[in-house]
Amino acid sequence: MFLQGTPDTDSVSDRWGAFDIDDVSDPWGTYDTDDVSNPRELLRATLNKKEVSTLKERFDNTKQTLQLTVQIQRAPVMEKAVGVFSRSSLETELAAKENEISQLADDIQSLQSTVNYLKEASASQIIQLEETLIEKNKTIQELEEKLIQQKDYEEIKKELSHMFFLGRIFS
Question: Which residues contact 57 (CB under 8 A, 6 or more apart)?
Fold first, then answer.
């Protein structure tokens, strides 16, 4: 049995399609019953002619059957081709969607790493700002203490100045 779409079926159908039994010549001349004079040869020629006719009919029937078989075998090939084409279309769409998903996953991963970097940078800046705030608060506290000391100094100076003035008066 020939497989569909193989070179064997194509070449056989081409050969059979081109082959015509009527084109076959009779090398022995036994098919012409009119020229036969011997009754025995006439009988043989008649039988040969009938056999050729029967073989022609069988050949034509076989040829038609083969052509139908080839057509039937090719029909599923067309259906398969359409199925393959539509499946190929679906597979192409699926591959495109998979690429899109992959790209989105890469984008998400990139964004997550950016967010993590920004979190770390922000935490580092917050720590630096807190340290700066602590230093500024210490500086403010030291300045407040100096102001208090200076205020005390001013009061002491004022008192001394009063005492000195009173001391001059009483002396």
Answer: none
